[in-house]
Specification:
- It is built from 6 helices and no strands.
- With about 140 residues, the protein is mainly alpha-helical.
- It has 3 domains: about 1-50; about 55-105, no CATH class; about 110-140.
- The longest helix is centred in the first third of the chain and has 49 residues, at about 1-50.
- Mean pLDDT is about 80; it is low at about 10-15.
- It is found in: Cell membrane.
Length: about 140
């Protein structure tokens, strides 16, 4: 009977640990969702201050060159938003790939020096204005 009791205690502990992991994993997801909603709201507010909401559709598809706010919205703010989303997704993907390949949960592009090397390549290419169609893209590699 001691063996049976020990097995049931171990299975209960394992089950308890598993339930604990599920509970702990919900909080980061809720935090991430809250941060995402806050970022969307701040973007909405920023865009509303820069341009009235009634002009957003025209500014996105065919900005009027006489209205400077629409030109800034179309050629400055929307590209910045798109690039920031793409760069964030790219850095997240690279971080996951590094963690999986190196089997190290702390590995990320900044700790391994990869991000710094890419920044150096982009800086050198930008400062020296090296000609070429894809020079800037390949300099980050």
């Amino acid at each position: 009977m001691p063996d049976g009791g020990a097995k049931s205690v171990l299975s209960d502990l394992r089950f308890g640990r598993f339930v604990g992991r599920i509970r702990r994993s919900r909080h980061p997801a809720l935090l991430l969702l809250a941060l995402f909603v806050a970022a969307c709201w701040l973007t909405w507010v920023n865009f509303s201050v820069a341009l009235p909401r009634s002009q957003w559709q025209q500014a996105i598809w065919s900005p009027d060159i006489d209205i400077i706010e629409q030109m800034i919205f179309h050629y400055s703010q929307l590209p910045r938003l798109a690039i920031s989303l793409l760069v964030g997704a790219g850095l997240g993907l690279v971080g996951v790939l590094f963690q999986q390949v190196l089997r190290n949960p702390l590995a990320e592009p900044t700790t391994l020096g990869v991000a710094t090397g890419a920044q150096l390549g982009i800086t050198v290419t930008t400062l020296w204005a090296i000609p070429g169609a894809l020079t800037t893209q390949f300099a980050a590699l």
